[in-house]
Design a protein that fits this description.
about 100 residues, mainly alpha, two-stranded antiparallel ribbon, about 45% helix
């Protein structure tokens, strides 16, 4: 059984495969790996802070290289790493338990 540290190191190793100079260069196809990369991206948002859609797009743009903030924003919301009001006027990252 892997320890938490070994597991964390393994996740970091997986995420690094999809980064270039700290920026996401590709979104993995494998669901588990995609989740790890999305968690990395979500960590760039402050918990408890409200963001506009423009601000969300700006943060995402800063942390990827393939020019598709739309898909990354949608993925973050779909997996629950980012929340938003139904009208899209406010986005936020909830605190993790």
């Amino acid at each position: 059984m892997m320890s938490t540290i070994e597991n964390s190191d393994r996740i970091d190793e997986i995420v690094l495969r999809f980064l270039e100079k700290g920026k996401i260069r590709q979104l993995p196809i494998k669901t588990t790996y995609k989740r790890y990369v999305l968690e990395y991206l979500a960590s760039k948002f402050e918990t408890g802070k409200d963001y506009t859609e423009v601000e969300v797009n700006s943060v995402i743009d800063e942390w990827h290289t393939f020019g598709d903030y739309f898909i990354l924003r949608r993925e973050l919301i779909d997996v629950g790493l980012l929340k938003r009001l139904p009208n899209g006027s406010k986005y936020w990252r909830e605190r993790l338990e």
